[in-house]
Predict the structure.
Amino acid sequence: MTKKWRRRKAERDPFYELAKKKGVRSRAYFKLENIDKRFGIFKPGDRVIDLGAYPGGWLQYIISRIGIDGLLIGVDINPIKPFEEVPNVVLVQGDIFEEDTFAKIEEILGENKVDVIVSDLSPNITGIWELDTEIIYDYNMKVLEYAERFLERDGILVMKSFEGRRVSNITRKLKSKFRHVRIYKPKASRKRSAEIYFICMYYRPKSRKTSNRSSEEESVFIP
Ligand SMILES: C[S@@+](CC[C@H](N)C(=O)[O-])C[C@H]1O[C@@H](n2cnc3c(N)ncnc32)[C@H](O)[C@@H]1O
Protein backbone atom coordinates (compact mmCIF):
# COMPACT_ATOMS: atom_id res chain seq x y z
CA MET A 1 0.00 0.00 0.00
CA THR A 2 1.65 3.30 -1.08
CA LYS A 3 1.83 6.35 1.22
CA LYS A 4 -0.23 8.40 -1.24
CA TRP A 5 -2.99 5.77 -1.34
CA ARG A 6 -3.02 5.56 2.47
CA ARG A 7 -3.26 9.33 2.80
CA ARG A 8 -6.19 9.42 0.36
CA LYS A 9 -7.97 6.64 2.21
CA ALA A 10 -7.42 8.40 5.54
CA GLU A 11 -8.83 11.64 4.12
CA ARG A 12 -11.91 9.83 2.88
CA ASP A 13 -12.28 7.61 5.94
CA PRO A 14 -10.85 9.05 9.18
CA PHE A 15 -12.10 6.02 11.15
CA TYR A 16 -9.92 3.68 9.09
CA GLU A 17 -6.82 5.66 10.09
CA LEU A 18 -8.01 5.97 13.68
CA ALA A 19 -8.44 2.17 13.88
CA LYS A 20 -4.85 1.73 12.69
CA LYS A 21 -3.52 4.30 15.16
CA LYS A 22 -5.42 2.82 18.06
CA GLY A 23 -4.40 -0.68 17.03
CA VAL A 24 -7.96 -2.03 17.02
CA ARG A 25 -8.98 -4.91 14.77
CA SER A 26 -11.58 -3.02 12.72
CA ARG A 27 -13.02 0.46 12.19
CA ALA A 28 -16.35 -1.03 13.34
CA TYR A 29 -14.96 -0.52 16.86
CA PHE A 30 -15.90 3.16 16.58
CA LYS A 31 -19.49 2.44 15.56
CA LEU A 32 -20.09 0.50 18.74
CA GLU A 33 -18.31 3.21 20.74
CA ASN A 34 -20.68 5.81 19.16
CA ILE A 35 -23.70 3.66 20.02
CA ASP A 36 -22.56 3.01 23.58
CA LYS A 37 -21.79 6.68 24.26
CA ARG A 38 -25.20 7.68 22.91
CA PHE A 39 -27.31 4.98 24.58
CA GLY A 40 -25.25 3.56 27.47
CA ILE A 41 -25.31 -0.10 26.44
CA PHE A 42 -22.63 -1.75 28.60
CA LYS A 43 -21.68 -1.78 32.25
CA PRO A 44 -18.91 -3.55 34.17
CA GLY A 45 -19.70 -7.20 34.85
CA ASP A 46 -22.20 -7.59 31.97
CA ARG A 47 -22.63 -10.87 30.14
CA VAL A 48 -22.67 -10.20 26.38
CA ILE A 49 -23.09 -12.14 23.12
CA ASP A 50 -21.56 -10.59 19.97
CA LEU A 51 -23.00 -12.13 16.78
CA GLY A 52 -20.92 -11.62 13.62
CA ALA A 53 -17.87 -10.72 15.67
CA TYR A 54 -14.95 -11.32 13.24
CA PRO A 55 -12.32 -9.81 13.13
CA GLY A 56 -13.07 -8.53 16.63
CA GLY A 57 -13.26 -4.72 16.81
CA TRP A 58 -16.56 -4.87 18.73
CA LEU A 59 -15.13 -7.58 20.97
CA GLN A 60 -12.22 -5.29 21.86
CA TYR A 61 -14.58 -2.44 22.67
CA ILE A 62 -16.85 -4.66 24.79
CA ILE A 63 -13.88 -6.10 26.71
CA SER A 64 -12.85 -2.54 27.63
CA ARG A 65 -16.35 -1.85 28.98
CA ILE A 66 -17.37 -5.02 30.83
CA GLY A 67 -14.00 -5.67 32.51
CA ILE A 68 -12.80 -8.96 33.93
CA ASP A 69 -15.98 -9.75 35.87
CA GLY A 70 -18.09 -9.92 32.72
CA LEU A 71 -18.46 -12.70 30.14
CA LEU A 72 -18.20 -12.17 26.40
CA ILE A 73 -19.18 -14.74 23.78
CA GLY A 74 -18.09 -13.89 20.24
CA VAL A 75 -19.69 -15.80 17.36
CA ASP A 76 -18.73 -15.81 13.69
CA ILE A 77 -18.59 -18.15 10.75
CA ASN A 78 -14.94 -17.08 10.37
CA PRO A 79 -12.30 -18.05 12.94
CA ILE A 80 -11.55 -15.13 15.27
CA LYS A 81 -7.99 -14.67 16.55
CA PRO A 82 -8.17 -15.50 20.27
CA PHE A 83 -7.70 -12.87 22.95
CA GLU A 84 -5.15 -14.86 24.88
CA GLU A 85 -4.65 -12.26 27.59
CA VAL A 86 -8.41 -12.05 28.35
CA PRO A 87 -9.81 -15.17 30.04
CA ASN A 88 -13.49 -14.14 30.02
CA VAL A 89 -13.87 -14.11 26.22
CA VAL A 90 -15.20 -17.30 24.63
CA LEU A 91 -15.14 -17.62 20.85
CA VAL A 92 -17.59 -19.77 18.90
CA GLN A 93 -17.00 -20.51 15.24
CA GLY A 94 -20.25 -21.29 13.47
CA ASP A 95 -23.08 -20.20 11.21
CA ILE A 96 -25.81 -18.45 13.21
CA PHE A 97 -28.43 -20.38 11.21
CA GLU A 98 -27.03 -23.74 12.35
CA GLU A 99 -28.55 -25.47 15.39
CA ASP A 100 -25.07 -26.44 16.47
CA THR A 101 -24.07 -22.78 16.97
CA PHE A 102 -27.11 -22.22 19.18
CA ALA A 103 -26.22 -25.40 21.12
CA LYS A 104 -22.62 -24.25 21.67
CA ILE A 105 -23.86 -21.02 23.28
CA GLU A 106 -26.32 -22.99 25.44
CA GLU A 107 -23.44 -25.15 26.58
CA ILE A 108 -21.38 -22.10 27.61
CA LEU A 109 -24.21 -20.32 29.41
CA GLY A 110 -25.96 -23.24 31.09
CA GLU A 111 -28.98 -21.77 32.88
CA ASN A 112 -27.58 -18.23 32.69
CA LYS A 113 -28.81 -15.51 30.38
CA VAL A 114 -27.02 -12.42 29.08
CA ASP A 115 -27.53 -8.70 29.67
CA VAL A 116 -26.73 -7.59 26.12
CA ILE A 117 -26.76 -9.10 22.64
CA VAL A 118 -25.08 -7.16 19.84
CA SER A 119 -25.18 -8.12 16.18
CA ASP A 120 -23.09 -6.59 13.43
CA LEU A 121 -23.86 -9.57 11.17
CA SER A 122 -23.54 -8.73 7.48
CA PRO A 123 -24.69 -11.15 4.82
CA ASN A 124 -22.89 -11.22 1.49
CA ILE A 125 -24.60 -8.51 -0.50
CA THR A 126 -25.88 -9.55 -3.93
CA GLY A 127 -26.45 -5.99 -5.15
CA ILE A 128 -30.08 -6.87 -5.96
CA TRP A 129 -31.83 -4.54 -3.58
CA GLU A 130 -35.07 -6.53 -3.05
CA LEU A 131 -33.13 -9.73 -2.45
CA ASP A 132 -30.67 -8.10 -0.03
CA THR A 133 -33.55 -6.62 1.96
CA GLU A 134 -35.02 -10.12 2.36
CA ILE A 135 -31.66 -11.62 3.34
CA ILE A 136 -31.02 -9.07 6.08
CA TYR A 137 -34.62 -9.57 7.23
CA ASP A 138 -33.91 -13.30 7.69
CA TYR A 139 -30.73 -12.44 9.59
CA ASN A 140 -32.62 -10.01 11.83
CA MET A 141 -35.32 -12.58 12.59
CA LYS A 142 -32.67 -15.15 13.48
CA VAL A 143 -30.98 -12.65 15.81
CA LEU A 144 -34.36 -12.11 17.46
CA GLU A 145 -34.52 -15.87 18.10
CA TYR A 146 -31.17 -15.63 19.88
CA ALA A 147 -32.57 -12.76 21.97
CA GLU A 148 -35.66 -14.78 22.86
CA ARG A 149 -33.52 -17.67 23.99
CA PHE A 150 -30.59 -15.94 25.70
CA LEU A 151 -31.54 -12.41 26.74
CA GLU A 152 -32.33 -11.53 30.33
CA ARG A 153 -35.53 -9.64 31.12
CA ASP A 154 -34.76 -5.89 30.70
CA GLY A 155 -31.79 -6.82 28.51
CA ILE A 156 -30.53 -4.83 25.51
CA LEU A 157 -30.27 -5.79 21.84
CA VAL A 158 -28.19 -3.80 19.34
CA MET A 159 -28.74 -5.14 15.82
CA LYS A 160 -27.50 -4.08 12.40
CA SER A 161 -30.00 -3.89 9.58
CA PHE A 162 -30.36 -2.09 6.26
CA GLU A 163 -32.63 0.75 5.26
CA GLY A 164 -35.47 -0.46 3.05
CA ARG A 165 -39.01 -1.62 2.89
CA ARG A 166 -38.65 -4.20 5.68
CA VAL A 167 -37.66 -1.66 8.36
CA SER A 168 -41.15 -0.90 9.63
CA ASN A 169 -41.94 -4.61 9.71
CA ILE A 170 -38.80 -5.37 11.74
CA THR A 171 -39.52 -2.40 14.04
CA ARG A 172 -42.99 -3.78 14.72
CA LYS A 173 -41.61 -7.19 15.62
CA LEU A 174 -39.00 -5.66 17.92
CA LYS A 175 -41.59 -3.46 19.57
CA SER A 176 -43.57 -6.50 20.55
CA LYS A 177 -40.53 -7.69 22.56
CA PHE A 178 -38.83 -4.51 23.81
CA ARG A 179 -40.15 -1.43 25.58
CA HIS A 180 -37.92 1.03 23.68
CA VAL A 181 -36.84 0.62 20.08
CA ARG A 182 -34.74 3.23 18.29
CA ILE A 183 -33.07 3.34 14.90
CA TYR A 184 -29.61 4.88 14.85
CA LYS A 185 -26.89 5.54 12.31
CA PRO A 186 -23.54 6.00 14.07
CA LYS A 187 -21.19 8.75 12.90
CA ALA A 188 -18.61 6.09 12.06
CA SER A 189 -20.98 4.42 9.55
CA ARG A 190 -19.96 5.25 6.00
CA LYS A 191 -22.25 7.94 4.60
CA ARG A 192 -23.17 5.94 1.50
CA SER A 193 -23.90 2.78 3.47
CA ALA A 194 -27.51 1.70 3.94
CA GLU A 195 -26.71 0.19 7.32
CA ILE A 196 -28.70 1.21 10.38
CA TYR A 197 -28.76 -0.15 13.91
CA PHE A 198 -31.78 -1.04 15.97
CA ILE A 199 -31.21 -0.13 19.61
CA CYS A 200 -33.72 -2.13 21.64
CA MET A 201 -33.97 -1.73 25.39
CA TYR A 202 -35.91 -3.41 28.20
CA TYR A 203 -36.52 -6.87 26.81
CA ARG A 204 -39.95 -8.18 27.70
CA PRO A 205 -39.94 -11.98 27.32
CA LYS A 206 -43.71 -12.14 26.92
CA SER A 207 -45.04 -10.88 23.62
CA ARG A 208 -47.02 -7.62 23.82
CA LYS A 209 -49.54 -6.85 21.13
CA THR A 210 -48.89 -3.52 19.40
CA SER A 211 -51.07 -2.16 16.66
CA ASN A 212 -49.31 -1.22 13.41
CA ARG A 213 -50.29 2.37 13.94
CA SER A 214 -48.69 2.85 17.33
CA SER A 215 -45.52 1.05 16.16
CA GLU A 216 -45.09 3.44 13.26
CA GLU A 217 -45.71 6.44 15.47
CA GLU A 218 -43.30 5.31 18.16
CA SER A 219 -40.41 4.32 15.91
CA VAL A 220 -37.84 7.06 16.18
CA PHE A 221 -34.95 7.61 13.81
CA ILE A 222 -32.01 9.26 15.51
CA PRO A 223 -29.51 10.69 12.99
C1 LIG B 1 -19.22 -6.36 9.49
S1 LIG B 1 -18.51 -7.86 9.97
C2 LIG B 1 -18.44 -7.71 11.70
C3 LIG B 1 -17.36 -6.80 12.19
C4 LIG B 1 -17.18 -6.87 13.70
N1 LIG B 1 -18.35 -6.33 14.40
C5 LIG B 1 -15.97 -6.14 14.17
O1 LIG B 1 -16.11 -5.23 14.97
O2 LIG B 1 -14.85 -6.50 13.79
C6 LIG B 1 -19.85 -8.97 9.74
C7 LIG B 1 -19.53 -10.41 10.10
O3 LIG B 1 -20.70 -11.20 9.97
C8 LIG B 1 -20.26 -12.54 9.74
N2 LIG B 1 -21.37 -13.39 9.25
C9 LIG B 1 -22.12 -13.22 8.14
N3 LIG B 1 -23.02 -14.22 8.02
C10 LIG B 1 -22.84 -15.03 9.10
C11 LIG B 1 -23.49 -16.22 9.56
N4 LIG B 1 -24.51 -16.77 8.86
N5 LIG B 1 -23.09 -16.77 10.70
C12 LIG B 1 -22.05 -16.23 11.41
N6 LIG B 1 -21.40 -15.11 11.03
C13 LIG B 1 -21.78 -14.51 9.89
C14 LIG B 1 -19.15 -12.36 8.73
O4 LIG B 1 -18.30 -13.48 8.73
C15 LIG B 1 -18.47 -11.06 9.21
O5 LIG B 1 -17.34 -11.35 9.96
User: Anything to note?
Assistant: Residues 210-219 have pLDDT under 50 and may be disordered.
